[in-house]
Design goal:
The chain is an alpha+beta fold. About 20% of the residues lie in helices and about 45% in strands. It has one domain: SH3 type barrels. It contains one helix and five strands. It has a five-stranded antiparallel beta sheet with strand order 3-2-1-4-5, covered by helices on one side.
Length: about 70
């Protein structure tokens, strides 16, 4: 099973984004997404931001992952 991780974008530079996923910050590729800005929420899979999502989507994902753990 493949799992994506919801994260908030905190910075974007040269095709890369720094994202915050529940307090853990990491750098991921942002090459697949246009007009990505700090404050946006994204779904991250295998080190790549694959889709923009809403803050509600991010909250729902966090709730589901918490229920599973």
């Amino acid at each position: 099973m493949c799992v994506g991780l919801a994260a908030k974008v905190v910075g974007v530079k040269n095709g890369m984004a720094v994202v915050d996923a529940s307090g853990a910050k990491r750098e991921v590729s942002a090459e697949l997404l246009d007009e990505l800005e700090p404050g946006d929420y994204v779904m991250v899979h295998a080190g790549v931001a694959i889709a923009k999502i809403t803050q509600d989507d991010e909250s729902e994902t966090d709730d589901l992952l918490e229920m599973l753990s």
